[in-house]
Design brief:
alpha/beta; six-stranded mixed β-sheet; 16 helices; Oxidized Rhodanese, domain 1; globular; single chain; 19% strand; 23 strands; five-stranded mixed β-sheet; 468 residues; 3 domains; Metallo-beta-lactamase, Chain A
């Protein structure tokens, strides 16, 4: 048997290539959109990819089922109930797919989504112990899939959580404890709230250690998995819709190079100027109005959190990273990159009228400013699980995915200071506010971690909930 986990760290997303060495037949499960890695491995190992299996309709990334089908002629398969615009072969509960000796068994595991499936993998069809189970977003290492992403479809989180409870206890936990668990996501994914950095486990280990599996009471389970979830990222609904569509295939060509005149023309027409350089480089000088999301972090995810999906994007960072930026944006369905600024260094040097710097404060400077400026608007952009451990006194908590919907609640004419845990998200937030017309915005170097390390005061609202 050939079994490969392809893990994409910048999206905390795992996909899998499974093949039978004797027949050369293979499937790919939950592929990302840029599919050359699967095609390359298949060619190297002498495999024919004949099927693409999606464990569910994904919301956090744009899957590569159409790209793989176009490249290989593979059949696309989902669990029963999947509503998509392209031809698929639906897989039923208990169905077995033989690749040769390697055999896959489908388990219907609704809960994260109604059509969710898991795939039990056997090296030989008569094995009592499976090699492993691909659990999609039903079961993670340390967590289970969040059940609150389909409220727009009329399915309540409580209804889906009850479905998930049954799927876990009636299907997955019936597998032998030694069965390896291979999920679709790891730590950092917004598809759960406390995923482990480990990318595989066993059923037995999860039975013992996963918080969501520690109770046999369904009501306690519902309360545990529906509470404390992060704000649903704004782009999730858009990506899920595009995963249902017969959409255009990935265009991985470098974006067109644009002169500053054309960049300004696109900006006046409503395009977002996106600078993917590191925060320090952005802060020292950038095109006025540009939003900064560093390419070295969770770039595509955070762009999806702060940039509307219907806006054109012009890249105004490092031209040598333009193609990489474009591909990473395409992984979450943002295909609207219209070009890249040709000569950023020249603009920074020769056009001071188009350039601005970003204010960044140390925690000491913030501590002093809080005493001097009673009208300062202090914004904490961390998620609920983070702020539960404390906030800077007087801070207003607006998780970064909720920022664009909360801009109207802030005073554009008053001083704003933004912080997060360590500084990456705060400069994203500050750049969004600056691009939205706020006059005086700063972010905090080192964020709450630096504030806490300096021994400066913090507070937790008396009701245990973050200040809103």
């Amino acid at each position: 048997m050939i079994f490969t986990q392809h893990y994409l760290g910048c999206l905390s997303q795992a996909s899998y290539l499974l093949g039978d060495e004797t027949t050369g037949r293979a499937v790919v499960v939950d592929p990302r959109r840029d599919v050359d890695n699967y095609l390359g491995e298949a060619a190297e190992r002498g495999l024919r990819i004949e099927r693409v299996i999606e464990t569910h309709i994904h919301a956090d990334f744009l899957s590569g089922h159409l790209e793989l089908a176009a490249a290989t002629g593979a059949v696309i398969s989902y669990g029963e109930g999947a509503d998509v615009e392209f031809p698929v072969e639906l897989l039923r509960d208990g169905q077995r797919i033989a690749l040769g000796e390697v055999t896959l068994e489908i388990l219907a595991t609704p809960g994260h989504t109604p059509e969710s499936i898991c795939i039990v993998v056997y090296e030989h069809p008569d094995d009592d112990l499976p090699y492993g189970v691909l659990t999609g977003d039903a079961l993670f290492v340390g967590d289970v899939g969040r059940p609150d992403l389909l409220t727009a479809s009329g399915l309540s989180p409580e209804t889906l959580a009850r479905m998930l409870y049954r799927s876990l206890h009636d299907k997955l936990l019936k597998l032998p404890d030694a069965t390896r668990v291979f999920p679709a996501h790891g730590a950092g994914s917004a598809c759960g709230k406390q995923l482990s950095s480990e990318t595989s486990s066993t059923i037995g280990e999860q039975r013992r250690t996963n918080y969501a599996l520690q109770t046999i009471d369904v009501d306690q389970f519902v309360a545990a998995v529906t509470g404390g979830q992060s704000v649903r990222p704004p782009y999730f609904e858009y990506a899920a819709h595009r995963n249902r569509e017969l959409r255009p295939l990935l265009d991985d060509n470098p974006p067109s190079m644009l002169d500053i005149k054309d960049v300004c023309k696109h900006a006046r027409a409503g395009a977002v100027l996106l600078d993917s350089r590191e925060p320090a480089d952005y802060a020292s000088g950038h095109l006025r109005g540009a939003v900064n999301v560093g390419l070295q972090g969770r770039f595509a995810e955070w762009v999806g959190n702060v940039v509307p999906a219907d806006r054109d994007i012009v890249l105004v960072g490092d031209p040598t990273r333009a193609r990489e930026s474009k591909i990473r944006l395409s992984r979450v369905g943002f295909d609207q990159v219209v070009g890249q600024l040709r000569d950023l260094a020249g603009i920074l040097a020769q056009r001071p009228d188009l350039v601005e710097t970003a204010s960044r404060l140390t925690v000491g400077q913030l501590d002093e400013l809080l005493r001097l400026e009673p009208n300062l608007q202090l914004v904490d952009v961390r998620c609920p699980g983070e702020v539960a451990g404390g906030i800077i006194p007087g801070a207003r908590v607006i998780p970064l995915p909720a920022l664009t919907d909360s801009i109207a609640d802030l005073d554009r004419t008053a001083l704003v200071v933004v912080y997060c845990a360590a500084g990456y998200r705060s400069i994203v937030a500050a750049s969004v506010l600056r691009a939205s017309g706020f006059n005086d915005v700063s972010d905090v170097l080192g964020g709450f971690n630096a504030w806490q390390a300096a021994g400066l005061p913090q507070e937790t609202p008396s009701d245990g909930r973050p200040r809103a």
